[in-house]
Amino acid sequence: MPEGHTLHRIARLHHERFAGGAVRVSSPQGRFAEGAALVDGQVLERAEAVGKHLLHHYESGLSVHVHLGLYGTFSEAELPMGPPVGQVRMRMIGAATDFGTDLRGPTACEILHPPEVDALIARLGADPLRPDADHDRAGARIRRSRRAIGALLMDQAIIAGVGNVYRAEVLFRHGISPFRPGTAITAAEWDALWADLVDLMPIGVRTGRMHVVRPEHDSGAPSYAKDRPRTYVYRRQGEPCRVCATPVAHKVMDARNLFWCPTCQSH
Ligand SMILES: [Zn+2]
Fold first, then answer.
1. Does a structural domain hold residue 267?
2. 3-state SS track over the chain
3. Which of 12, 24, 46, 256 is catalytic?
4. pTM of the entire structure?
């Protein structure tokens, strides 16, 4: 599933390409036809991301909310666009630009009214990629919880936008066991974790790739898969830890794959 930096990158691109001009919005597949008709031809005022959610705000006050889920993708294109290929839920064509985009396979693509946008944002936790993020509130919630920090970091109601890769990597970078309860995370540890996310995630927005391995630990050892980022632990189960050579461990936590170094992250 795309992590928050991917959604912020899409939001930034859509804002650059479409904001300030009218947009033709349609649903070639039909499943979003009614919603598309409500914003078709309107000026897009702003595109933004909150965690893993994308919002297109139109001049009428209506917003299109997209959550890509596991399978959703945007295909960006220059105009003229060809006939839709496959199940295109939403097609956007900028009236004042040379660009369009096709959305396929999202978990959510819907019209929201302003109170619904407010409710969506209110139920999401602190997003390290947003300047308005309330990291103290997120920290307080973590430090009140007996749940494992590995699960808390993935809880979008506490921290929005962090997914499986940043979860595993940031815990490794701070030597914190993913099984430690939130109540045992100190204020200083939370501040450091947060600061690291605030440093790391914008690199993902800027470059489209995650950079999480510090230069001194990057021996050039290959990534877990072709064209994927090099990681300390994510998807490296059984491989030697880049720092201490202990085999990286793997376990399923809350139905998601979890990776950690049992030596570097022993407590
Ligand atoms: Zn290690």
1. no
2. CCCHHHHHHHHHHHHHHHCCCEEEEECCCCCCHHHHHHHCCCEEEEEEEECCEEEEEECCCCEEEEECCCCCEEEEEECCCCCCCCCEEEEEEECCCCEEEEEECCCEEEEECHHHHHHHHHHCCECCCCCCCCHHHHHHHHHHCCCEHHHHCCCCCCECCCCHHHHHHHHHHCCCCCCCEHHHCCHHHHHHHHHHHHHHHHHHHHHCCCCCCCHHHCCCCCCCCCCCCCCCCCCCECCECCCCCCEEEEEEECCEEEEECCCCCCC
3. 256
4. 0.95
